[in-house]
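FORM 7B: Structural annotation worksheet

SECTION A. Query
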Amino acid sequence: MKIIFYIFSVFPLNFAFFLGDLIFKIIPLGILRHFSGFKITKINLSIVFHEMNEHDLESISKESFKESLKSIYETFYAWSRPSKKIIYQTKKINDRFLFNSNSLDRGLIIIGLHNRSIDFMLRWISSQRANTSLYKKIKFEPLNRFVKRLREEGNCKMVETGIGGVKSILASLENNELTCMASDQVPADGFGAYSKFFNHECYSFDLAPKLARRFNANVILGYLSYQKEIGHIINFRNFNNEIYSDAGVHIMNKVMEDEIRKSPLEYSWEYKKFRKLSNKQKKDIYKN
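SECTION B. Predicted structure
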């Protein structure tokens, strides 16, 4: 399966991005409007940039959708190259000292943000330190086995989101080890709490702040970004002590917001982030 992803990511990253920019300059918006990913992106961005007019909103939605396609290319690239290639392509690490913190009496939780390809970042993390990470099982079983095996390189362990996976994460933190979990996706019922994300109600995955509080673990945010003049950058950011409070999920979302606002078009907006609503708010924003 690796050869398939290599074929679909055969060009060097910077050249592939150049081609993507070129193609999107000539693709009319009328074509993109037929894609569900573009429609969802536009709805989500209308929440973030609620004051923006329709023309400008469609323009940034087009740019954001383009970046999402680039992140798919990055994922294919990460799935088909050795870890040393990913290390080489990672040109800068911001606040690496947060990641390098290796306390013998405290575990470390990395909250992953779907900024560009999260698999690209996970390959880098796994090349540096063994970890136990939560993941959502891929429905296509051959692909699920391939991705799981790839993510478990370097003595890492991938566990499915659910009761069994949470137990493995608990055991890891009890041993003061490193765990990773993407916390910006909508969790299953009973695994989250309602909070605000860009001032809109959002059912949020609150496991990371709960575990940080329970185990007094260090907790940081991690995400990938890209600058044309530099290349790929992995960013780490600390949380203040409020992450350990009962308001931890709100603090987590606010820090995510702050980082997304630095380069909002790099975030994966094609996901139905606001699809689970409380009884107070019944309108489904993704339905016409």
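SECTION C. Observations
The longest strand covers residues 218-227. The beta strands are 90-94, 108-112, 132-135, 157-160, 178-182, 192-197, 200-205, 218-227, 231-238.

SECTION D. Sign-off
Analyst initials: ____
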